[in-house]
Amino acid sequence: MAKLFQRVPMQHLLDTTNLSDEQIIQILEDAKRFKHQRPPHLLRDKLLITLFFENSTRTRSSFEVAAKRLGATVVHLDPSRSSTNKGETLEDTFANLCAMEPDGVIIRHWENHTPQLLADKKMTSVINAGAGSYAHPTQALLDLFTMMEHFDGNVSGKTIAIVGDIISSRVASSGIRLFVRMGMRVILVAPQPFMPESNLPQYERLEEVLDEVDVIMSLRAQLERHATPLFDDYETYSKHYCISQDRLGDREILILHPGPVMRNIDISDEILKDSRCKVLEQVKNGVYIRMAVLKLLLLDA
Ligand code: CP
Fold it and tell me: Which ligand 1 atom sits closest to the C-alpha of 286?
């Protein structure tokens, strides 16, 4: 995957490639501390604006909870009810929001380059909450944090299989860059149309890798991002890729999914209740990671 985002001064988070190793360690350590002890209102007097051009349950709420737990004020602009519907450009919308002097804008957009485009305007701190199929840095960080917790603080040498619609997934893109950097072995498991161009080991059959992986990250099939449907229905897909008890057996594999989970297609009901499955722990950890990211960007940087 090509490197889209350049290293930038630390007031922005466009992808984890913007972060130094020390900053990643700091985020993980702060998140761990925040999880065990609620911090004081370090960001009182700070104002954040969220601008989500795509739907979100977890990321938007998680950023808001994180900001409020640190005492910041959060304002949401819903693009579907904004003057973008009257023809105002994204750049003008952003400039007008910046005229209100926020300390940061948290943006989700369908274009890969949008966070970089807005950051280049140098008007406020830009935090990428998911852009196109390229980057979702806070998801990658919270996934790393969840794995670190599980493996006693060291993921180096562990093998993670990313399973499903990898080509459409910004979670996979950001995750691959971060996990490889942390010394993990990343392998890709997907039907051919869902497989990106990559130097990483690729498999079509999940059964081929089950005995060699420590972690499975299952992904949602994002049919809305495919021009033509790849499957007539999900039954064929789930028969081969659903993480089920039959498939997993008693293997000690950590199961992750960024959400939203398509039940019994990505992961079975039974496995979603299994202690190996950390989907809701990922969501919980997301708040602490985003608190740590906001502290780094708005206070420490
Ligand atoms: N993981 C994730 O990005 O979920 P949302 O789309 O609900 O924010």
Answer: 1
Judge whether 72 and 47 are in contact, CB under 8 Å: yes
Torsion of CA 176, 179, 257, 199, to 10 degrees: 30
Top mutation candidate among 52, 53, 55, 58 for ligand 1, by most atoms within 8 Å of CB:
58
pLDDT at residue 234, rounded to an integer: 79
CA of 62 to the centre of ligand 1 (A): 9
Same domain assignment for residues 55 and 152? no
Atom of ligand 1 nearest to the CA of 108: 8
Which residue's CA is the closest to the ligand 1 atom numbered 3?
59
How many domains does the chain fold into?
2
User: Ligand 1 pocket check: which of 50, 55, 57 to mutate, most ligand atoms within 8 Å of Cβ?
Assistant: 57
Q: Is 51 helix (H, G, I), strand (E, B) or coil?
A: strand
pLDDT at 7 over 60: no
Tell me what pLDDT residue 3 has.
Answer: 54
CATH of the domain at 273: 3.40.50.1370
Q: How far is the centre of ligand 1, averaged over its atoms, from the C-alpha of 60 (Å)?
A: 8
Q: What domain range is 24 assigned to?
A: 16-136+286-300
**Are 152 and 277 contained in the same domain?**
yes
Q: What residue type is 10 in one-letter code? A: M
Query: Does residue 102 have a pLDDT over 80?
Result: yes
- pLDDT at 69 > cutoff 60: yes
The predicted pLDDT at position 231 comes to 67
Question: Starting from the edge strand earliest in sequence, which strands make up the sheet with 125-131, in order?
Answer: 73-77, 47-52, 104-109, 125-131
